[in-house]
Design a protein that fits this description.
Radius of gyration: 16 Å
Strand order of the largest sheet: 1-2-4-5-6-3
Strand content: 35-45%
CATH class: Alpha Beta
Number of helices: 3
Number of domains: 1
CATH superfamily: Hotdog Thioesterase
CATH topology: Thiol Ester Dehydrase, Chain A
Oligomer: single chain
Low-confidence stretches: 1-7, 142-152
Number of strands: 6
Structural class: alpha+beta
Length: 152
């Protein structure tokens, strides 16, 4: 179930619907809220590396998708300013991964978001990765707003 922020327009859902890359990989936006998002993806054979584990790039993409939806949930166009990921446990063929993004703080046009990616394991939930994203809200139509090194 996807919720709209403030009961009206759902900016995160609108952005996700235009995200051909995420949708082509089978990512589903499960839920959004103010500063939050949950996305899911099943690991396919095309996503495996030479060790038969999910390639880290695909794992990053899932976490980044949840992050992007969370930071765009407030409405203005917001982009990634940077991100880090720690791979904690492997994901394997047919695992269903869930990425839960939550806003830690927003200040000025900047934000910090944490994303936990997990899967079901024999003993319960297994954390697969921890991701931290840094966001920057852009100007009206997605243009830079004239910060350092940006055109005015």
């Amino acid at each position: 179930m996807t919720q709209a922020v403030g009961g009206g327009r759902n900016a995160a859902r609108e952005m996700f619907e235009a995200d051909a890359a995420s949708r082509a990989l089978g990512i589903d936006l499960v839920e959004t809220g103010a500063g939050t998002a949950t996305a899911r993806m099943r690991v396919t054979a095309a996503m495996l590396n030479g060790h038969q584990m999910m390639h880290g790039g695909y794992l990053f993409l899932l976490a980044d998708t949840a992050f992007g939806c969370a930071c765009n949930s407030h409405g203005p166009v917001t982009v990634a300013a940077g991100a880090d990921i720690s791979f904690v446990a492997p994901a394997r063929l047919h695992d269903e991964l869930t990425a839960v993004a939550s806003e830690r703080t927003r200040y000025g046009r900047n934000g910090i978001y944490d994303v936990t990616v997990y899967r079901e394991g024999p003993g319960g939930l297994v954390t697969v990765a921890e991701f931290r994203g840094r966001s920057r809200t852009t100007g009206a139509k997605g243009e830079p707003t004239g910060g350092r090194g940006e055109p005015r």
